[in-house]
Write a structure and sequence with these properties.
Blueprint (H helix, E strand, L loop, with lengths): L1 H13 L6 H13 L5 H12 L3 H17 L4 E4 L5 E4 L15 H11 L3 H11 L3 H11 L1 H4 L8 H26 L9 H23 L10 E2 L20 H29 L1 E4 L1 H7 L12 E3 L6 E7 L4 H14 L6 E7 L3 E3 L1 H6 L2 H11 L10 H12 L7 E6 L11 H10 L2 E6 L13 H5 L4 E4 L3 H12 L1
Parallel strand pairs: 3-11, 6-7, 6-9, 9-10, 10-11
Antiparallel strand pairs: 1-2, 4-5, 7-8
Helix pairs in contact: 2-3, 5-6, 5-9, 6-7, 6-9, 7-9, 9-10, 11-19, 16-17
């Protein structure tokens, strides 16, 4: 059993799952104590040790199904009666070759068909060892590893996927040619040849299915904003990009009123939260004035734990109309947070925190538009922005930081690089995406929002005053 568990662990690590040696040892010890002949128990033990979070559970189930069911990996497990039992996974009589292929067919294909490393990986997959093939597919899904600074599109990923598909089709043709040709196996029994061809075909079908599966993370905990309260039925429902000058002034007045209100509420909340547990020593000392009766209860002061905010705002097109109000509010509420740090971008992130610290919010907004080194003619490239932000500013994120991304997720059909966004999420306390577009437009045109949403803790539409106030109130309170 140890050997097969180690082999499965290697497959999981190849696909990017982080599994330590200690976790493997824990798994083996638990299997000795539990009832591993029950597959439900066996699956639960492996999943509890190998899948670190809910987001990894879907990927674990995908690999478990491939390894123990579709690849028909065998296990020698203890039985209830104290003996040993060989379990070869789920399969019928057609899976009579548990090693994958007959040695004759395997030797022929290895001698005639292996033109490159991909062919060797596919050959190993057909023989029952999926590790090399999993690694090849993982490199395609891991867009960051295949992304190029020179070629920003996802053409490289499509090319890699097409290359594997062509290799599978070539291997399928070679199997048919060998079994039906003059150089076929000595055993010419039609039933045997048919069974061998069917087995090879099933393995190739599984390889194609594994390639075409989209390993999106399980994001069942994604928080979505509800309808919200329509505090301002007319002004509050107008998109920021459609506001007139008079309406913008009225929106700013409303925002100023809400800032004062939220500051007062948060100040009272922090004052109440500052009172910690009872300080027994000081309470006893003070009771001396009342003949030892603890009339006055003294509590310990505990330090306030205010969160840190990092914003990453798209300033291209209509997105900027929302981002300017968002930044205005956040810097007006700096007392509610330990720190607010802001970056703006079109195709590259730029730190503008100094402007907001040196000037009031409205002046800082004007200076951003006039004085910053932004290329307004560049195409928005979210994938490249995330990559550069991680490379240059990752130290700004920690487990007390809320990362807020303000943007429409439209990346001009360039490489979205979702794994980079996932690495940012793992670094910070939570990742919130505010999209000025309404949710019904998130899957249209060049929008990658549905992809990015799978890597966020919260995603909500935020394109008018009512939606912005709802978000800020949830963030502060």
């Amino acid at each position: 059993m140890e050997e097969i568990i180690l082999e499965f662990t290697a497959c999981c690590r190849t696909d990017g799952m982080r599994i330590s040696t200690a976790e493997v040892l824990d798994c083996l010890r638990q299997l000795e104590l539990a009832a591993p002949w029950n597959e439900s128990v066996f699956h639960t033990i492996l999943k509890a040790n190998f899948a670190k979070s809910r987001r990894e559970q879907a990927e674990f189930d995908r690999l478990y199904r491939l390894f123990f069911h579709e690849m028909k990996k065998g296990l020698t497990l203890p039985c209830q009666d104290g003996g040993m039992e060989r379990r070869d996974g789920e399969g019928g009589p057609d899976d009579s070759d548990p090693s994958g292929l007959s040695s004759e067919l395997a030797n022929h294909l290895e001698a005639a068909a292996l033109e490159n490393g991909l062919d060797q990986a596919l050959m190993d997959f057909m023989k029952g060892d999926p590790r090399a093939f999993i690694e090849a597919v993982h490199q395609i899904h891991d867009q960051e590893s295949r992304a190029s600074q020179a070629i920003k599109s996802n053409l490289g990923q499509l090319t890699g996927r097409l290359e594997i598909m062509l290799s599978i089709n070539k291997m399928r043709q070679r199997v048919v040619q060998f079994l039906g040709g003059l150089d076929g196996p000595v055993n010419g029994d039609p039933a045997y040849l048919s069974r061998l061809e069917a087995l090879a075909g099933r393995r190739l079908d599984r390889a194609m299915a594994f390639l075409n599966e989209d390993p999106r993370p399980d994001n069942a905990g994604l928080r979505k904003a509800g309808a919200g309260e329509k505090r301002y039925p007319s002004l509050g429902e107008v998109p920021f990009s459609n506001l007139t000058q008079d309406e913008m002034a009225r929106v700013q007045d409303v925002i100023d009123q809400w800032v004062k209100k939220l500051e007062e509420i948060s100040t009272l909340r922090f004052a109440a939260a500052k009172r910690g547990v009872v300080d027994v020593k000081k309470t006893i000392l003070r009771s001396g004035k009342y003949l030892g009766v603890p009339v006055e209860i003294v509590r310990k002061d505990r330090p306030l734990r205010k969160g840190k905010i990092v914003t990453l705002c798209d300033v291209s097109g209509s997105v900027w109309s929302t981002a300017r109000f968002m930044l205005n509010i956040l810097y007006s509420l700096q007392a509610c947070f330990a720190r607010v740090k802001s970056y703006i971008f079109i195709d590259s992130p730029l730190d503008v925190s100094g402007l907001f610290l040196a000037h009031d919010a409205n002046t800082a907004v004007k200076k951003i538009l006039k004085e910053t080194r932004l290329n307004y003619n560049a195409k928005t490239d979210y994938g490249l922005v995330f990559q550069e932000f991680r490379d240059r500013h990752l130290q700004e994120l920690d487990k007390k930081t809320t990362l807020i991304i303000m943007g429409d997720g439209r990346s001009n059909y360039l490489n979205p690089r979702e794994p980079v966004l996932e690495s940012l999420r793992e670094r910070c306390r939570r990742l919130i995406w505010l999209n000025p577009e309404q949710e019904r437009f998130w899957d249209s045109g060049d929008s990658e929002m549905l992809r990015y949403r799978n890597h966020c803790n919260e995603a909500r539409a935020c394109g008018n005053l009512n939606q912005l106030i709802d978000f800020i109130q949830d963030l502060v309170l």
